[in-house]
Amino acid sequence: MNIKKIYLILLNVLLVFFLIFLLSVEHLNLYAVIYAVVAVILIGHLWLSQSKKTTKIILTIIYLLIMSAQQVFNTLFVFSGIDTGMVFLIKKMIAVIFMLVPFFVLYFNYLYTIQNVFSQSVKDATAISFNMMKEMQKSTFSLGNKLKKGRNSLSRENLNEIMEDLPRHSYTKYLNKNTLTDAFFAECQRSLADEHLYIVISSTGSPASELISVFTQKVYNHVSLSFDRDLKTIVSYNGGEKVSPPGLNQEQLAQFHKKDDAEILVYSLEASKAQKEIIMDKVKEINETGSAYNFVGLVTKFSIRPNIMFCSQFVYNMLKIAGLEYFQSPATKIKPTDLVEKDYYRKLAFCYQIKFNEL
Questions:
Q1: Strand 308-309 to strand 292-293: parallel, antiparallel, or no bridges (unpaired)?
Q2: Confidence band (pLDDT; 50, 70, 90) for 282?
Q3: The pTM is what?
Q4: Rounded to a whole number, what is the distance in angstroms from the first to the last CA of the chain?
Q5: Which of 163, 226, 306, 332 is positioned for an S-S bond with 234, CB 3.0–4.6 A?
Q6: Which residues, other chains included, contact 261 with Cβ-Cβ below 8 Å and sequence gap of 6+?
Q7: 196-203 and 222-226: which strand pairing?
Q8: What is the number of H-type helices and E-type strands within the chain?
Q9: Which is nearest to 113 in space by CA: 177, 56, 154, 30?
Q10: Nearest partner of 248 among 260, 239, 258, 256, judged by Cα
Q11: Angle made by CA atoms 136, 137, 143, in degrees to the nearest 5
Q12: Hey, which of 20-29, 84-93, 100-109 has the most confident mean pLDDT?
């Protein structure tokens, strides 16, 4: 076990003990101090950052308002009266969760900053030069479309489907095993004459993809790997379509057509026969060992076990084990579009686009 894993385990243990300690507290004072300390630390961090002065002032006011709301909430609800037993414990759990609110503000400000920086880099032709990326820019949401898409993505139907699907997932154990067939691997072997791998980014319209797009503001929110140009061997991590368990699964083109304007972009990457065999062997190993879709990791950016991944994490890891990665990044922090947008050394070549509404 490496130092990083030991550190994370110890940190998780400390957090559990801290949570138990907070839930055992019977008085308001400690919670009040923690809320105040968190506000001071975050405000201090804010004013030491490179943010604009206007942003600093606005966020400072927000942090102070949150702290005030926390103090009022605890005084009037959590520690009002002489509560005991389970009701009091539940109230304190809510108070602990309330401690996280300022950190969510910090996180959303971080996302906004990153998105703003990226939007400026789009103007740099050296960052994105593929012809098809122009099509992606044309497909970028206008403000009105963003709001409309956000409402559709967060519709009751989409959220219900996502919530119903969550019990099928696991963050700690492998659920998917031996779902890739001998016929799939035979087709992979036949592809070895073509010394290329194919990276497929897609806009499918699935509820999970639509929800992710609200936060990433990207049109394409899924990426797959194929050993052949005709996509007979396309494979990735996904939810299993309620047919297979979430994890490593072969994909069919029909699975990508979940909305009228669904589409995919296919890029080729030069890869020797030996490099393709390395990836095939690794895919076979994962298939035999077991896998699960890293649904929680989309937020936490962390995997408990090596074969628990999400789609872009899987594709990048496969490229890396064969020495084919063309940019450096922690695999858990890679978005599907990064596989194209971060191709600074022009390793990819555009092959073709499929628009399902034109078939």
A1: parallel
A2: very high
A3: 0.61
A4: 51
A5: 226
A6: 203, 205, 355, 357
A7: antiparallel
A8: 14, 8
A9: 56
A10: 239
A11: 115
A12: 100-109
Lookup: tokens for 202: 């897609």
Integer angstrom CA distances of residue 207 from 22, 154, 239: 37, 9, 11
Q: What single letter denotes the amino acid at residue 264? A: I
The token pair at 183 is 């016929």
Please say whether the beta carbons of 251 and 238 come within 8 A: yes
Q: For residue 271, which of 316, 319, 342, 315 has the smallest C-alpha distance?
A: 319
CB-CB contact of 250 with 180 (8 Å): yes
64 residue type, one letter:
L
pLDDT of residue 135: 47
Residues 6+ apart with CB under 8 A from 166: 295
Q: Please give the C-alpha separations between residue 184 and each of 189, 193, 200, 272, in angstroms, as whole numbers.
A: 9, 16, 18, 20
How many Å apart are CA 189 and CA 207, to the nearest integer? Answer: 34
Strand order across the 235-238 sheet: 247-250, 235-238, 222-226, 196-203, 263-270, 348-355
The better pLDDT of the pair 228, 296 is held by 228
| DSSP state, residue 142 | P
Which residues lie below 8 Å from residue 283, measured CB to CB, with a gap of 6+?
Answer: 180, 188, 235, 248, 318
Residue with tokens 């103007």: 123
pLDDT digits (tens, 9 = 90+) for 236-273: 999 998 889 999 999 999 888 887 888 999 999 999 99
* pLDDT given at position 126: 42
Residues 6+ apart with CB under 8 A from 74: 28, 31, 32, 35, 95, 98
The Cα 102–Cα 125 span in angstroms is 37
